[in-house]
Amino acid sequence: MNLSEQIKKTAAETRSPEDTVLVWPNLVYIELICILLGTAVLLFLSLISPAPLEELASADTTPNPTKAPWYFLGLQELLVYFDPWLAGVVLPSMIIVGLIIIPYVDTNPNGKGYYTFSERKFSVLGFSFGLGLWYILIVIGVWSRGLDWSWYWPWSDWTIHMSVTAVKLIDLELILQETFGLSDQPILQLGQRYGMTISNLVTWLLFLGYYAVGFTIPFLLLRKFYNKLGLIRYHLVMFFFLSMCGVPLKMFLRLIFNIKYVLVTPWFKI
Amino acid sequence: MDDIWGYPYRLGITIFLVIGTAACTLIFVVFAMWLEKSFKDDKINKR
């Protein structure tokens, strides 16, 4: 069905007049009530949770920890797990670009003008997962990060510094060198700064392999999904979807295996 | 054996992340399902 046919298929055409209501007053009154309720809730929140200005900033007494406004704490929390370049620039940009392309890659005509989950399961689940991850990172940043950005439980003593040496992080390629006895000598010199070792090459293969496998499995098992999207849209959707899933994956590698970076180059670290 | 629940709370943070993300996702999905159920009469009948 093309767009003009969809526009023609409006409520006015499919419903009899006695089954419809007027915008004024039926809709506008509901909107007015919503505005009043919203204002009341905001007023109440500002009364119970004041946000006073603090004293003038001083370079001698910097606060510990320095926390961003709550809506940016998810990003600040990502800095624990990713390079600043990635957590502060690349990932936010990818989130914004990914949201922008949604209307262009969405081929599912269902859900226009009405709420549905059953007809858009992948979209709703994928978006909810990203949003859930975003919110849980904010929750962690607001309520679980204390002195030196260390993790504090609600029952911990928040005035005592945690031992910063308790976490020893190591790059994946060094783990490969130690575990499999791979050489740390460069096998390929790429420019003056980048001598690629075998272990570094393996990390490249693992990193690219994650995307390659992620692109291939739905292509083989969910061919209808691929056919519906087409080549370009499929790769765009899968790239952003896999990148989104890669964020918690990297976090778990850092938490469980103490892996600092999966892939290290002189220009960027992931 | 080290206390697996002690600082740096690797297991605790991981479990918190998994359960927290799953719970948030579930809330959004349940909300979407509730919206669908509650407003199903608004859906334009398909021809």
Kindly state the percentage of residues in helix of chain B. 55-70%
Global shape of chain B: rod-shaped
**Which percent range describes the beta-strand content of chain B?**
under 5%
Please state the average pLDDT score of chain B. Answer: 85
H-E order of chain B: H
Listing every helix as H and every strand as E from the N terminus to the C terminus, the arrangement of chain A reads HHHHHHHEEHHH
Topology:
The complex is a heterodimer of chains A (270) and B (47).
Chain A: H1 3-8, H2 11-14, H3 23-48, H4 73-78, H5 84-105, H6 121-143, H7 172-180, E1 188-190, E2 194-196, H8 198-221, H9 223-229, H10 231-257
Antiparallel strand pairs in A: 1-2
Helix pairs in contact in A: 5-10, 7-8, 8-10, 9-10
Chain B: H1 10-38
Describe the structure concisely for a colleague:
The complex is a heterodimer of chains A (270) and B (47). Chain A is mainly alpha-helical and 270 residues long. Chain A has helices at 3-8, 11-14, 23-48, 73-78, 84-105, 121-143, 172-180, 198-221, 223-229, 231-257, and strands at 188-190, 194-196.
